[in-house]
Amino acid sequence: MVGHGALRFLQNYPGGAGRLLISITADDRMHHHSHPTLPAGMPGPSRPRLPGYRRTPKLNGISEHPICHIRIRRLTGSASNPAMRFTLCFFLMLQACWLPAQIIDVHLHGYTDQDYWGGRPHPSGAESPPTAGEHMRQTIALMDQHDIEYAVVSGSPEATAQYVAADPRFIPGYMDDGSLIPVSEFEQLIKEGRIKVFGEVSGVYRGATLNDSIYQPYLALCEEYGIPVAYHTGGGPPMTPYRCCPEFRISLGDPFLIEDVLVRYPRLQLSLMHGGEVFFEHAVRMMTMYLHLYVDLGVLLWAAPPVQDYAVRLLKLAKQHGVLDRVMFGSDQMVWPGGITKSVEFLNSLDFLTEEEKRMILYDNAKRFLKLE
């Protein structure tokens, strides 16, 4: 029943702005999208899992499964004519055949004016906005451009609160920047819905791994409340021990060093950020052993050709070992929003991945990891 949802939407919103839903009813594997505006008579669920998230409502008892939706800025007066609405719907459905898949970005960063460190371009050519406010605006604009349905934004509680307030597609993560909040406060923020992901956990910059005793009470709470954990693996920028972090060592980014964490917390959803980077083979081997272990691609998709090579080799190895269903898209844009575009374009350029596999990486795997189902 392709187009039924789209026609219903336009009938309820003559002359309005919003999103056009195009759906089918035959394939229960299709995913649900969020709909910021629902037509009258189409109620969402009583308990959405995340801010802005709504399961697809039922029309006449039929559960519809969207395959895409198109943003409608505003319909002209002539579109209020039923024939015009039908014609518009038909051509928009044709256009949808060429629209890219939707995306969940599991690795973004957000900042306040106090902790923003941008302003200089990245060696790859990506520009950095001069202020935290402009960084947020550009990030949101690129989410619109690339049809990013959700994005995990990592930062301080103050930073993530600002991003979530600006756009409900943001999922608040809590970044370990070396000064962890008290365990009691951490639990309270979880209960309030202000921490939905524990990450980025970047203890390697201070000479620690996730196996360190300081993290154990936080990990226990994450397992108890079903909060996914995102952990920095691999290396860092050149000269890191001299520039900021004297205790940083590349060797601490080896995923093998946190195997005890996976054994200790068998119900913990854990993601290795940057896919282990230089240790990508170790990451894949760990994924074959521990089925609750995921990876995100992070800066491997855009920062520099050498790390893009790691991304290619990781993806090929993950495909060979049958764990591609736990590899997730994450751009790790940091202070360079353009990293989002570079990441999307690089992943879509990889011809050894099928369109179905790209969809898994861009959307489906993260949907499962974040418990959006």
Automatic annotation (TrEMBL):
Please provide the record's keywords in A-Z order: Lyase
Pfam families from the xrefs?
Amidohydro_2
Ranges of residues in domain Amidohydrolase-related: 104-372
Annotated coiled-coil segments of the chain: none
Name the SUPFAM superfamilies on file.
Metallo-dependent hydrolases
- Please provide one cellular component term from the Gene Ontology annotations of this protein: cytoplasm
Q: Which InterPro entries does this one have? A: ACMSD (IPR032465), Amidohydro-rel (IPR006680), Metal_Hydrolase (IPR032466)
One GO term of the biological process aspect: secondary metabolic process
- State the Gene Ontology terms under molecular function: carboxy-lyase activity; hydrolase activity
Tell me which CDD domains the record gives.
Answer: metallo-dependent_hydrolases (cd01292)
PANTHER family annotated for this entry?
2-AMINO-3-CARBOXYLMUCONATE-6-SEMIALDEHYDE DECARBOXYLASE, ISO-OROTATE DECARBOXYLASE (EUROFUNG)
Q: What is this protein called?
A: Amidohydrolase-related domain-containing protein
Q: Which source organism? A: Neolewinella marina
